[in-house]
């Protein structure tokens, strides 16, 4: 029995994009930072992270793998929707993808963004990108964006398994350091409908993972939410502590080891393989602090099934049905459509977005 996908006739995977070869690195960084006041020094430094990995970001291959996994998962239940892919900062560019969708006669699509939490960078900026692309493409399809999924049992469950596995490699009584991408504190203050949603959502996800790990291991343990990949000028405050500083305090406090759990990332992005696996791992080594990095969801079955379920859920909601909305944690399932003033940009007027246009 095929699954009812109406009113949708396609799914769009929308992601950040990344360079594929050394010559792509500078133009990619220019795309990312145009007009954002990132110091040249920081750009040179981040460029080096990419060059150290052959000028290729892992993110595009991660998305290709996710597309294949989604296809297989959709086929399993007869969810008969084509899946397209477009990025904010690198080919395949969102505008080109939207043009292709229009040419294929797609009228209405649901978008999966590879970012799980509310914030300007992870939510509204993608919606602005959809709005910009829409204005350039005649007959672009109507697009709905899936609700934030960080507190979905499939996302939390995937990190529970990964955390348990990382702890297995460490001494008894090791701590957990949940890590996410730092953002300016001012961006956190205005994230979500009532502000602070970026941090609140991460704390909620961390608490859920803690509770399940405690249930399984029969003991509470230290855990903290910490940050990586700070950018921007030094005088602008960003969320802290940095993961490296945190490892120093853990070592000073004598914890026997630490599981580093990157709950802010859906797959092994450059931030994960450089900031955590390279830089933080070197810090831990220097401190003689045993560290194990938990896997990101990537193409984990729980994660892929969750994305499929959310597509089916949203289709039902758009047909006027009242689908179940699975949710872990205290914050409840996220809203389907963001309010017009949700997650406003810093230092710029709010621009039009396209979502349920
Ligand atoms: C919250 C958040 C996410 C998670 C949500 C999501 O996934 O969207 C995220 C993801 C990513 N960020 C990425 C790369 C970069 N982010 C930068 C800059 C910035 N990120 C910010 C925030 C976030 N970023 C912010 C507030 C800035 C300052 C400039 C600005 O306000 O825009 C810069 C410029 C250099 C630098 O300053 O670091 C780069 C190169 C990549 C690709 C990695 C790869 O290649 O694998 C990914 C997935
Ligand atoms: Fe970023």
Q: Which CATH class of the largest domain applies here?
A: Alpha Beta
Catalogue the unreliable spans.
none
CATH topology of the largest domain: Rossmann fold
Largest sheet, spatial ordering of strands: 2-1-3-4
What structural class should be given to the helix and strand makeup? alpha/beta
Task: Give the SSE string.
Answer: EHHHEHEHEHEHHEHEHEH
Number of separate structural domains: 2
CATH architecture of the largest domain: 3-Layer(aba) Sandwich
Structure summary, number of beta strands: 8
Give Rg in angstroms.
Answer: 20 Å
What separation lies between the terminal Cα atoms? Answer: 31 Å
Summed up, the helix count is 11
Percent of residues in beta strands: 5-15%
The largest sheet, given as strand count, sense and whether it forms a barrel, is: 4 strands, parallel
Residue share in helix: 40-55%
Shape: globular
> Which ligands accompany this protein?
coproporphyrin III, fe (ii) ion
The whole-number mean of residue pLDDT values reads: 95
